[in-house]
Specification:
The protein is mostly helical. It has one domain (3-58). Helix content is 83%, strand content 0%. The protein contains two helices and no strands. 0% of the residues are buried.
């Protein structure tokens, strides 16, 4: 699997996680705070990996 496809899928996962964070933060989706916190941590990790891959490809 090429790095481009990994970066592409991580970008899609990040988009879904950001939308999930926004909707749970606005209480449009009611979930426990612990799940909101865990998804935020997962978002931070996937965004960091996504960024490192992007930098390694284009720098």
């Amino acid at each position: 699997m090429d790095l481009f496809y990994i970066m592409f899928y991580l970008g899609i996962i990040n988009l879904v996680l950001v939308l999930f964070q926004v909707f749970t933060g606005m209480r449009a989706i009611k979930i426990p705070h612990s799940i909101h916190r865990i998804s935020g941590i997962v978002l931070a990790i996937t965004a960091t990996v996504h960024g490192f891959i992007a930098l390694s490809m284009y720098v």
